[in-house]
Design a protein that fits this description.
Blueprint: E1 2-7, H1 13-24, E2 27-30, H2 31-40, H3 44-54, H4 61-72, H5 75-80, E3 82-85, H6 91-104, E4 110-115, H7 118-126, E5 128-131, E6 137-139, E7 154-155, H8 162-184, E8 189-193, H9 198-210
Parallel strand pairs: 1-3, 1-4, 2-3, 4-8
Antiparallel strand pairs: 5-6, 5-7
Helix pairs in contact: 1-9, 2-3, 2-4, 3-4, 4-6, 7-8
Pfam families: ADK
Family: Belongs to the adenylate kinase family.
Pathway: Purine metabolism; AMP biosynthesis via salvage pathway; AMP from ADP: step 1/1
Protein backbone atom coordinates (compact mmCIF):
# COMPACT_ATOMS: atom_id res chain seq x y z
CA UNK A 1 0.00 0.00 0.00
CA UNK A 2 1.54 3.28 -1.13
CA UNK A 3 -0.18 6.43 0.10
CA UNK A 4 0.13 10.17 0.56
CA UNK A 5 -1.54 12.03 3.42
CA UNK A 6 -2.41 15.70 3.06
CA UNK A 7 -4.14 18.30 5.19
CA UNK A 8 -3.76 21.86 6.44
CA UNK A 9 -1.93 22.64 9.70
CA UNK A 10 -4.19 21.71 12.61
CA UNK A 11 -6.27 19.24 10.59
CA UNK A 12 -4.95 16.30 12.62
CA UNK A 13 -2.71 14.87 9.93
CA UNK A 14 0.00 13.72 12.36
CA UNK A 15 -2.46 11.93 14.62
CA UNK A 16 -4.09 10.12 11.73
CA UNK A 17 -0.76 9.26 10.09
CA UNK A 18 0.31 7.45 13.28
CA UNK A 19 -2.95 5.49 13.30
CA UNK A 20 -2.59 4.52 9.62
CA UNK A 21 0.95 3.26 10.21
CA UNK A 22 -0.15 1.21 13.23
CA UNK A 23 -3.20 -0.28 11.51
CA UNK A 24 -1.81 -0.99 8.03
CA UNK A 25 1.88 -1.58 8.75
CA UNK A 26 3.19 0.85 6.12
CA UNK A 27 6.38 2.85 6.56
CA UNK A 28 5.79 6.44 7.67
CA UNK A 29 8.01 8.74 5.61
CA UNK A 30 8.07 12.31 6.88
CA UNK A 31 10.17 15.06 5.35
CA UNK A 32 11.97 15.83 8.61
CA UNK A 33 12.84 12.19 9.28
CA UNK A 34 14.14 11.76 5.72
CA UNK A 35 16.42 14.78 5.96
CA UNK A 36 17.80 13.76 9.36
CA UNK A 37 18.46 10.18 8.22
CA UNK A 38 20.07 11.25 4.93
CA UNK A 39 22.40 13.67 6.71
CA UNK A 40 23.23 11.19 9.49
CA UNK A 41 24.01 8.47 6.94
CA UNK A 42 25.94 10.94 4.78
CA UNK A 43 24.16 9.94 1.60
CA UNK A 44 24.96 11.92 -1.52
CA UNK A 45 21.81 14.01 -1.16
CA UNK A 46 22.17 14.22 2.61
CA UNK A 47 25.60 15.81 2.27
CA UNK A 48 24.22 18.29 -0.26
CA UNK A 49 21.29 19.14 2.01
CA UNK A 50 23.55 19.67 5.02
CA UNK A 51 25.62 22.14 3.03
CA UNK A 52 22.56 24.31 2.38
CA UNK A 53 21.16 23.95 5.91
CA UNK A 54 24.49 24.81 7.57
CA UNK A 55 24.55 28.05 5.58
CA UNK A 56 20.97 28.84 6.57
CA UNK A 57 19.77 28.46 2.98
CA UNK A 58 16.61 26.73 1.77
CA UNK A 59 17.24 23.25 0.42
CA UNK A 60 16.45 23.39 -3.32
CA UNK A 61 13.82 21.12 -4.83
CA UNK A 62 16.30 18.96 -6.70
CA UNK A 63 17.99 18.00 -3.41
CA UNK A 64 14.69 17.40 -1.60
CA UNK A 65 13.46 15.31 -4.51
CA UNK A 66 16.71 13.37 -4.44
CA UNK A 67 16.36 12.60 -0.73
CA UNK A 68 12.83 11.31 -1.33
CA UNK A 69 14.10 9.15 -4.20
CA UNK A 70 16.88 7.71 -2.01
CA UNK A 71 14.32 6.78 0.66
CA UNK A 72 11.88 5.20 -1.78
CA UNK A 73 14.66 3.03 -3.21
CA UNK A 74 15.21 1.28 0.14
CA UNK A 75 14.15 -2.33 0.65
CA UNK A 76 11.64 -1.76 3.45
CA UNK A 77 9.52 0.38 1.14
CA UNK A 78 9.23 -2.40 -1.44
CA UNK A 79 8.35 -4.83 1.33
CA UNK A 80 5.78 -2.82 3.31
CA UNK A 81 4.72 0.21 1.27
CA UNK A 82 4.71 3.79 2.50
CA UNK A 83 2.73 6.70 3.84
CA UNK A 84 4.37 9.89 2.57
CA UNK A 85 3.78 12.86 4.88
CA UNK A 86 4.91 16.45 4.25
CA UNK A 87 5.90 15.91 0.62
CA UNK A 88 5.15 17.02 -2.03
CA UNK A 89 4.75 20.62 -0.84
CA UNK A 90 4.60 22.21 -4.30
CA UNK A 91 3.16 21.19 -7.64
CA UNK A 92 6.71 20.99 -9.00
CA UNK A 93 7.57 18.45 -6.31
CA UNK A 94 4.40 16.51 -7.17
CA UNK A 95 5.53 16.21 -10.80
CA UNK A 96 9.00 15.14 -9.62
CA UNK A 97 7.43 12.48 -7.39
CA UNK A 98 5.42 11.18 -10.35
CA UNK A 99 8.67 10.74 -12.30
CA UNK A 100 10.45 9.09 -9.37
CA UNK A 101 7.65 6.59 -8.77
CA UNK A 102 7.47 5.77 -12.48
CA UNK A 103 11.23 5.13 -12.64
CA UNK A 104 11.08 2.90 -9.55
CA UNK A 105 8.01 1.02 -10.80
CA UNK A 106 5.97 2.05 -7.75
CA UNK A 107 2.24 2.74 -7.98
CA UNK A 108 0.72 5.44 -5.79
CA UNK A 109 -2.61 3.98 -4.70
CA UNK A 110 -4.30 6.79 -2.81
CA UNK A 111 -4.11 10.31 -1.42
CA UNK A 112 -5.81 10.79 1.94
CA UNK A 113 -6.89 14.43 2.16
CA UNK A 114 -8.10 15.49 5.61
CA UNK A 115 -10.46 18.30 4.73
CA UNK A 116 -11.61 20.92 7.21
CA UNK A 117 -12.80 24.49 6.86
CA UNK A 118 -9.92 26.92 7.42
CA UNK A 119 -12.02 29.13 9.72
CA UNK A 120 -12.32 26.20 12.15
CA UNK A 121 -8.58 25.65 11.95
CA UNK A 122 -7.98 29.27 12.94
CA UNK A 123 -9.90 28.56 16.14
CA UNK A 124 -7.92 25.38 16.75
CA UNK A 125 -4.52 26.91 16.07
CA UNK A 126 -4.97 30.36 17.59
CA UNK A 127 -6.45 29.19 20.89
CA UNK A 128 -3.15 28.15 22.45
CA UNK A 129 -2.08 30.21 25.47
CA UNK A 130 0.92 29.79 27.77
CA UNK A 131 1.11 30.49 31.49
CA UNK A 132 3.78 33.11 32.08
CA UNK A 133 5.05 31.66 35.35
CA UNK A 134 4.99 27.91 34.73
CA UNK A 135 5.21 27.72 30.94
CA UNK A 136 2.26 25.31 30.95
CA UNK A 137 0.28 25.26 27.70
CA UNK A 138 -3.51 25.50 27.52
CA UNK A 139 -6.13 26.02 24.82
CA UNK A 140 -8.90 28.59 25.24
CA UNK A 141 -11.54 26.20 23.86
CA UNK A 142 -10.26 22.61 24.10
CA UNK A 143 -8.12 22.75 27.25
CA UNK A 144 -8.86 25.97 29.17
CA UNK A 145 -7.25 26.87 32.50
CA UNK A 146 -9.35 26.82 35.67
CA UNK A 147 -12.58 28.79 35.52
CA UNK A 148 -12.14 32.48 36.16
CA UNK A 149 -8.46 32.53 35.19
CA UNK A 150 -6.71 35.88 34.81
CA UNK A 151 -5.84 36.51 31.15
CA UNK A 152 -2.94 38.73 32.20
CA UNK A 153 -1.19 35.62 33.58
CA UNK A 154 -1.04 34.12 30.09
CA UNK A 155 0.56 35.05 26.79
CA UNK A 156 0.38 33.92 23.17
CA UNK A 157 3.30 33.28 20.83
CA UNK A 158 3.33 35.42 17.71
CA UNK A 159 2.87 32.31 15.54
CA UNK A 160 -0.30 31.42 17.46
CA UNK A 161 -2.05 34.77 17.03
CA UNK A 162 -5.07 34.68 14.67
CA UNK A 163 -3.49 36.99 12.08
CA UNK A 164 -0.37 34.82 11.86
CA UNK A 165 -2.43 31.63 11.71
CA UNK A 166 -4.60 33.00 8.89
CA UNK A 167 -1.53 33.96 6.84
CA UNK A 168 0.03 30.53 7.37
CA UNK A 169 -3.17 28.78 6.30
CA UNK A 170 -3.51 30.99 3.22
CA UNK A 171 0.01 30.04 2.12
CA UNK A 172 -0.71 26.34 2.70
CA UNK A 173 -3.98 26.51 0.78
CA UNK A 174 -2.33 28.27 -2.16
CA UNK A 175 0.45 25.67 -2.29
CA UNK A 176 -1.71 22.64 -1.57
CA UNK A 177 -4.69 23.18 -3.84
CA UNK A 178 -2.84 22.56 -7.14
CA UNK A 179 -1.36 19.37 -5.66
CA UNK A 180 -4.78 18.08 -4.60
CA UNK A 181 -6.21 18.85 -8.03
CA UNK A 182 -3.25 17.14 -9.69
CA UNK A 183 -3.99 13.91 -7.82
CA UNK A 184 -7.75 14.36 -8.10
CA UNK A 185 -7.38 14.31 -11.88
CA UNK A 186 -5.71 10.90 -11.48
CA UNK A 187 -8.63 9.63 -9.41
CA UNK A 188 -6.47 9.14 -6.32
CA UNK A 189 -7.90 11.62 -3.80
CA UNK A 190 -10.09 10.48 -0.91
CA UNK A 191 -11.52 13.48 0.95
CA UNK A 192 -11.99 12.83 4.65
CA UNK A 193 -14.14 15.11 6.81
CA UNK A 194 -11.71 16.36 9.44
CA UNK A 195 -14.19 18.16 11.70
CA UNK A 196 -15.13 15.01 13.62
CA UNK A 197 -13.89 13.11 16.63
CA UNK A 198 -10.47 11.53 16.03
CA UNK A 199 -11.93 8.02 16.01
CA UNK A 200 -14.59 9.00 13.47
CA UNK A 201 -11.97 10.55 11.18
CA UNK A 202 -9.90 7.39 11.34
CA UNK A 203 -12.93 5.21 10.70
CA UNK A 204 -13.50 7.09 7.43
CA UNK A 205 -9.82 6.77 6.55
CA UNK A 206 -9.92 3.01 7.24
CA UNK A 207 -12.86 2.62 4.88
CA UNK A 208 -11.10 4.57 2.15
CA UNK A 209 -7.85 2.61 2.47
CA UNK A 210 -9.55 -0.77 2.77
CA UNK A 211 -11.35 -0.02 -0.48
CA UNK A 212 -7.98 0.27 -2.23
CA UNK A 213 -6.96 -3.33 -1.55
Amino acid sequence: MNLLIMGLPGAGKGTQAAKIVEEFGVIHISTGDMFRAAMANQTEMGILAKGFIDKGDLVPDEVTNGIVRERLEQADIKEKGFLLDGYPRTIEQAHALDETLAKLGINLQGVINIDIDSSKLVERLSGRIIHRETGETFHKVFNPPAEGYNEADFYQREDDKPESVKRRLEVNIAQGQPIIEHYRAKGLVHDIEGDQEITAVFSDIEKAISGLK
